[in-house]
């Protein structure tokens, strides 16, 4: 390029970073550049681009950890070059993960991998049972609520299992135990219940599902099991709802997955699945590899992965202990209540999350005829807040909610600030239609002097504008739903 010719080709030690030719010319977007560039330039270019990302701490859409103590950050950097699979070379790291002697489980990259593995184990066990009885084993299905996280749909598609979804209904946004158990048939590999629906944080009634399913199994001579997707709730219920029976206390619960990177309080990249008994994990799925010197039983989808997250999880477990996790979860719940009360006080919102459950607030506008939840989400973005709006799955798709997930690092001050900003946004949106009308009222004929008539025209224009706006939003909503990445 002409511009680059005017700059000397000497390196960054002579020119300031931004004046160097590397930063002054644009990088090829879709192919690898022929030449190398200095490390300072590469660093600067990438750092600059990343400035345009949202601030993770203000990303209230996600359950995934965005803050850890500096000591743990250091541990993570110290172990960033260790491959977890090299167990023989890094025996201490391996030992950290193997601290539980009784549970049978496997560490994963997150709950999605954990769920694929749990699902596979159920599918294989069901197939083996059917084969033994000489029955067909080609039409496995799994029963879930329509509120399941997308990884269950992935599991169903990737591993060819029919997903039988219990539809939601108005005001009831989790799997109905009665309807779920009704859907169970001889081909059901398991019922997947969620401890903490991603949509509104509500815990599904796993005890009830267990009791109904025991009954149905007895009547039909089946042994349909339950899996609990405790991606978020697995690290909440034991600390603030210890009485709640959702786990291996219930006889039909055969496996549980948890995301360490959600309320386990570690950065993205760790989860696990545990099985009730050794027999619940078919031996034929376990690979025994003799790699780099030792026998390693493995049941994972990946081979290599980083060790840092395992080490970071160990840090949190020993650093916080039961007491620490309890404190963090209680604090999250308290901040959730502050936000919930603030939203209720505006008188404008219907709260669709429960007080008991994952510390989040999901809320809808009581009146969305003038503006809707998507507009609130858009305007909050201007203050830096990332608050997603989405429509509920069938049969509650007419309900749109905004959702704020309360994580450890979402302090009381931030909760109060967010409330102030929500009120500002409401105020702005309240005044929007009249502003729109004011600017378009020029087109209203001057001759119309009668006040009432002007008002009528105003209202008509306002209605028309609202209708156009709503049509536009509806289209966007449809698009958003497809790309909706609430996680
Ligand atoms: C987040 C989540 C998942 C997916 O977990 P990842 O750890 O992100 O793979 C699955 N189920 C539920 C209920 C979740 O909240």
From TrEMBL:
Q: Name one GO biological process term.
A: L-glutamate catabolic process
Asked if the record carries the keyword Lyase, the reply is yes
Q: Does the keyword Cytoplasm apply?
A: no
Could you tell me the EC number(s) of this protein?
Answer: 4.1.1.15
Q: Which GO terms describe its cellular component?
A: cytosol
Top-level division of the source organism's lineage: Eukaryota
Which Pfam family is one of this chain's hits?
A: Pyridoxal_deC
Query: Any idea which UniProt keywords this protein has?
Result: Calmodulin-binding, Decarboxylase, Lyase, Pyridoxal phosphate
Q: Name one GO molecular function term.
A: glutamate decarboxylase activity
| Reactions performed catalytically | L-glutamate + H(+) = 4-aminobutanoate + CO2
**Residue positions where N6-(pyridoxal phosphate)lysine is found in the record:** 262
User: Which cofactors go with this protein?
Assistant: pyridoxal 5'-phosphate
Instruction: State the family named in the UniProt similarity comment for this chain.
Output: Belongs to the group II decarboxylase family.
* NCBIfam families documented for this protein: Glu-decarb-GAD
The name under which this protein is listed is Glutamate decarboxylase
Organism annotation: Lupinus angustifolius
């Amino acid at each position: 390029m002409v511009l680059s010719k005017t700059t000397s080709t000497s390196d960054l030690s002579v020119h300031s970073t931004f004046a160097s030719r590397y930063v002054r010319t644009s990088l090829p977007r879709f192919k690898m550049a022929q030449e190398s560039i200095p490390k300072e330039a590469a660093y600067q270019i990438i750092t600059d681009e990343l400035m345009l990302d949202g601030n993770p701490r203000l990303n209230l859409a996600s359950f995934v950890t965005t803050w850890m103590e500096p000591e743990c950050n250091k541990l993570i950097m110290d172990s960033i070059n260790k491959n977890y699979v090299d167990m023989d070379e890094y025996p201490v790291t391996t030992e950290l993960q193997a601290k539980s002697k009784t549970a049978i489980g496997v560490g994963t990259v997150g709950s999605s991998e954990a769920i694929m593995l749990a699902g596979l184990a159920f599918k294989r066990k069901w197939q083996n049972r059917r084969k033994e009885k000489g029955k067909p084993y080609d039409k496995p299905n799994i029963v879930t609520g329509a509120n399941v996280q997308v990884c269950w749909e992935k599991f169903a598609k990737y591993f060819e299992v029919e997903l039988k979804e219990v539809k939601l209904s108005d005001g009831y946004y989790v799997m109905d135990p009665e309807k779920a158990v009704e859907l169970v048939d001889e081909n059901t590999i398991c019922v997947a219940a969620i401890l903490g629906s991603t949509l509104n944080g509500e815990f599904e009634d796993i005890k009830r599902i267990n009791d109904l399913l025991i009954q149905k199994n007895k009547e039909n001579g089946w042994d349909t099991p339950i899996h609990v997707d405790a991606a978020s709730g697995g690290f909440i219920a034991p600390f603030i709802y210890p009485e709640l029976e959702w786990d291996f206390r219930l006889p039909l619960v055969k496996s549980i997955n948890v995301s360490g990177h959600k309320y386990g309080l570690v950065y993205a990249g760790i989860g696990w699945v545990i099985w009730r008994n050794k027999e619940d994990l078919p031996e034929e799925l376990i690979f025994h590899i003799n790699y780099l010197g030792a026998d390693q039983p493995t049941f994972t989808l990946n081979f290599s992965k980083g060790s840092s997250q395992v080490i970071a999880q160990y840090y949190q477990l020993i650093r916080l202990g039961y007491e620490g996790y309890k404190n963090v979860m209680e604090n999250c719940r308290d901040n959730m209540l502050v936000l919930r009360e603030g939203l209720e006080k505006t008188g404008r919102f219907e709260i669709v999350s429960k007080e008991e459950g994952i510390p989040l607030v999901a809320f809808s506008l009581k009146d969305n005829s003038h503006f809707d939840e998507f507009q609130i989400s858009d305007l909050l973005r201007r203050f830096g807040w990332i608050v997603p709006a989405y429509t509920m799955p069938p049969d509650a798709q007419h309900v749109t909610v905004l959702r704020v997930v309360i994580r450890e690092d979402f302090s009381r001050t931030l909760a109060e600030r967010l409330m102030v900003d929500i009120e500002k946004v409401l105020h702005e949106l309240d005044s929007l239609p009249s502003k729109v009308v004011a600017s378009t009222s020029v087109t209203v004929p001057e001759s119309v002097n009668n006040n009432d008539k002007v008002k009528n025209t105003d209202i008509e224009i306002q209605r028309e504008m609202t209708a156009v706006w709503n049509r536009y939003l509806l289209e966007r909503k449809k698009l958003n739903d497809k790309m909706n990445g609430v996680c």
